[in-house]
Structures are given as structure tokens and as C-alpha cells.
Amino acid sequence: IASCLVGSEMCIRDSYTGAGVFAVAALAGPAQAALYGVADRVVSAVGSLMRPLAGVIAPRIAGLLTHDPVAAFRTARWTLASVFVAATAVWIGLTAGAPILVRGLFGAAFMDAEPTLRLLAATLPLVAVSQVLGLHLMTSLRMDGRFAAMTAAGCAATLGAAWALAPAFGATGMAWARIAGEAVVVLICAVCLKRH
User: Fold this and answer.
1) Spatial separation of the C-alpha atoms in residues 87 and 168, rounded to whole Å
2) Are 141 and 65 in contact (CB under 8 A)?
3) Where would you tag: which of 6, 68, 188, 194 has the fewest CB atoms within 10 A of its CB?
């Protein structure tokens, strides 16, 4: 069940984050959509490197919860700290390397994607936290309904913020919308897990 939830969460998240390019195109035009698409591709590629961790750690935490809840939460805290530090380091690296990455991967014509890449990279630590809290803990604690609601709320927050920001700010506005959506997911995870 945990692997099905991991897969479905990733599918839903990819759908609403992938829809960002279409939202920017509809709300701000194709040129802004192209800039957002450049940044999104880089951040998605880097973010996908963290996904195998969910397949390794989530079953471990689920197993520990049945026999040793203290060890399960200790493992979750250790994992949370580790992935947050790693994702923050990657965020800093992407922010510093944005000009080189954009020019090297997409060419000088896409240099206007730099600010969007820098902003969108800020979602990496938020996604890392939500993966540990949501995928590793909430699913292991049988909070499937809340997990689904959290994902839907993140989608709604992202698309609502996009509706408000993308027309005026284009690709950068959509990046801010993604940050808002991921922050909502982390907040809901924290609230749901507060008593645990």
C-alpha cells in the first residue's frame, strides 16, 4: 500500500506541478511558459534524485511503527533533518549555478529563466520535508485520507496563487505560486502530525 501511495502522490504532484507550464501559457503567454518550463525541468530533474529515498525509508518507518514507535519517530526525525540539509544544499547550489546551468543547458536565449530557476529551487527543501512528513509518516500512520486532502490542498493553493500571480509576473509569479503550494502542504503535514 505504501508504494501505491508513494506512486499516486508523485503522479498527483507531477500533474499539478507539470500543469504549471500550461497555467503560465494560459495566464501569461507562451514566452513566459517557455521560461518557466526551463526552470521546472532543471528543478524536476534534480528533485527526482531524492525520490528513491522514499522507497527505502518509508517501509522502514512503517515497520518500526508496529514494533518500536520511538525508533520509528527517531528514524523519521533523522531522515527529516538529513533530507532538509541535502535539499537546502542543492537549493543553494542551483541558486548559485543558475546562470551557468541555464546558459549551458538551454542557451543564451533563455537567460531570463534565471530568476525563475532560483525561486523554483526553493521548493526543493519544502518538497523534501513534505515527503518525509507525508509519505514516510502520514501513510505509515494510516492517515491516507488526510494525505489525499493535503495533496489536493497543495494543488488548489498552487493553482489559486498562479491565477493571482502569473498574469502580472509570468514565470516568476508561477514559481512563487509553487512555493506557496508546497508551503501549504508542509503546514498541513505539520498540523496533522502535531499530536504524534
Assistant:
1) 29
2) yes
3) 194
Half-sphere exposure of 28 (CA within 13 A, CB side): 26
CB count, 10 Å around CB of 174? Answer: 30
What amino acid is encoded at 38 in this protein?
V
- Residue with the three cell numbers 512563487: 176
Burial-class residue 59 by CB neighbours within 10 Å (0-12, 13-18, 19+): middle
> pLDDT truncated to tens, each residue of the chain (196 aa)?
545 555 555 555 555 556 889 999 999 999 999 999 999 999 999 988 877 776 788 888 888 988 999 999 999 999 999 999 999 999 999 999 999 999 999 999 999 999 999 999 999 999 999 999 988 888 889 898 888 899 999 999 999 999 999 999 999 999 999 999 999 999 999 999 988 7
Cell match 485520507: residue?
145
